[in-house]
Every structure is written in structure tokens, then in C-alpha cells.
Amino acid sequence: MKKLTLVIFTLLTSASFSMSQGYNPAVPSELEAFVKINKDQSLGLPIGSNFPEFDYIDLDGYKIDYANLKDKLIVLNTWFVGCTGCKQEEEFLKELTSEFKDRDDIIFLSFAMSSPQKIERYYSKRGDFGYKTASVEKKWVIENFKIQLSPTHYIIKDGILVELISMPIATSQLLDWYKNRITSFLDYNLQIGLQDIILDYLSYPITV
């Protein structure tokens, strides 16, 4: 039964990605259409909904407590060992996390629907991709995130789901798109912070 479920997961992932292969992501206008089709096909929690609470121990033994992460932009993906699309995007995700590694206002989390032993064996062969990884039950992901396709990528800001897409980030063009989406939410935080500083300055009493 587990092998059958794995095969179905892989087929669903491949089907979702291949249905939009008629577009060339290297062409900006077609990239937009490519992403839109995949976003439209992505099931799961609606954009703008409160993201479910979670509390897990990652593979390194550190606690991942959602309540302590709400001041950060959370970039999350769900996947499983053996997922073809997940394997395809690994090098791109390594580049993604490397680019943002010096920022303390963002965290990359990975919920893998495989046993800790299986994930560790996989990482020992291929290396991780810079996300803090926890082993979770597939049933928990389905019940809480309303999603079955892998890989699925989520961006959570201030406890709200602001982006969700089920497809591999497996080309340089898609990686650039995803980086821009992440940066847009980080830049929004910066803009709000600057506005607050300016308002504080303007409200400060001036003495002559």
C-alpha cells in the first residue's frame, strides 16, 4: 500500500508539471502563464487564510515552534523521499537558501513525509538543500494543509498564507520568479519599517 501511494504521489506531481509544458518559461510572458496554470491547479489552503499551527523537532534535534516564527517570513515546502519533482528542484533550492542565508528575517522549513531514517540516508547521499527539515506524517499534511501534491511551496507572512504553488522550482526562470516573490514580501516589511521610522521622526517635537 505504501508503494502504491508513493507511485500515485509521483504520477500526480509529474502530471501537474507536464500539463503546462506547452509554455516556455524562458519567455517572460509565457513564464507568467506557466506559473498561473500551476497556481490554478494547486489545491490546498486558500491564499489569505491563517496558516495552521505546528510544533516539530527537526532532524538536528531543534524545536520548530510556529508561535516563535511569526515575526519571520516563513518559506516552507512539503515533499517526500522518492518524489521525482522534489529531486529535480534540489540544486535550485540550494541556490535559493544560499542567497538568503545572511538574513535573519526569513526561515526556510521543510516538512518531509518520510521517516527520519529515510530522510537522513537520502541527505547523506545527496546533501540537504538548506531548509530546516522535520519528518511529518502524510496524513497530518493532508488534514492540515489540504494538499497532496509534492513538492508544494508555501510562503507565510504574519501567520497568513500569502503564496502557494504545487510544482518543482526546477528551472532558473522559475527560481528567479520564486526569489522575486520572496523578496517582494521581505521588501514590504522593509517599506513598513521605514514608514514607521519616518512617522516617528515627523512626530518628534522640534524645539527652536
What does this structure look like?
The chain is α/β, with parallel strands linked by helices and 208 residues long. The protein has a single domain (2-201), classed as Glutaredoxin (3-Layer(aba) Sandwich), CATH 3.40.30.10. The protein contains seven helices and seven strands, in the order ααβββααβαβαββα.
**CATH architecture classification:** 3-Layer(aba) Sandwich
Strand content bin: 15-25%
**CATH 4th-level superfamily:** Glutaredoxin
- Unreliable runs: 1-20, 190-208
> Largest sheet, order of strands side by side?
5-4-3-6-7
- Give the CATH class: Alpha Beta
Termini Cα gap:
80 Å
How many structural units, i.e. domains?
1
Q: Mean pLDDT across all residues, rounded?
A: 82
Structural class: alpha/beta
What series of H and E elements makes up the topology? HHEEEHHEHEHEEH
If you compute it from the alpha carbons, what radius of gyration comes out, rounded to the nearest whole angstrom? Answer: 19 Å
- Characterize the main sheet: 5 strands, mixed
Number of strands: 7
Q: State the helix count.
A: 7
Q: CATH topology, what is it called?
A: Glutaredoxin
Any key phrases for this structure?
alpha/beta, 5-stranded mixed β-sheet, two-stranded antiparallel ribbon
Quick structural summary:
Helix content is 47%, strand content 18%. With 208 residues, it is α/β, with parallel strands linked by helices.
Sequence-ordered SSE layout with sheet pairings:
Blueprint: H1 2-18, H2 28-41, E1 55-57, E2 63-65, E3 73-79, H3 84-88, H4 90-99, E4 106-112, H5 116-126, E5 132-135, H6 138-145, E6 152-157, E7 160-166, H7 172-203
Parallel strand pairs: 3-4, 4-5
Antiparallel strand pairs: 1-2, 3-6, 6-7
